[in-house]
Amino acid sequence: MTQNIDRAPIEDPNASLERALIEEFIRARGFDPMQLHALPDDQRRRLWGEASAHAAARLTEMEARAHYIDELHGQR
To answer: What pLDDT does 18 receive?
Structure first.
């Protein structure tokens, strides 16, 4: 198998939105996402876990709404 290393890897189309949702969650909790390294490991892991779960739930909600809108317009 030949690989073309000139091409950038394919990124999940929702990756930037997920990152933004995670950062938004962290900031809403009063933390600077760029300063999380200064937190104790257990606190940092808990915050990242909560932020990731929040982002996943929001993305799922957005996807469900998009499917619903498509169904309303007869596109699915």
So the answer is: 94
Question: Which residue, 24, 53, 28, 26, is CA-closest to 37?
Answer: 26
Alpha helices of 1-76 — where are they, by DSSP H?
A: 15-28, 41-72
* 47 in Cβ contact with 26 (< 8 Å): yes
Determine the Cα–Cα distance for residues 49 and 54; give it in Å rounded to an integer. Answer: 9
pLDDT digits (tens, 9 = 90+) for 49-73: 999 999 999 999 999 998 888 888 8
Cα 7 from chain centroid (whole Å): 24
Identify the residue whose tokens are 């999380």. 36
pTM score of the predicted model: 0.74
Instruction: Write down the pLDDT at residue 70.
Output: 84
Nearest to 26 by CA among 42, 43, 14: 43
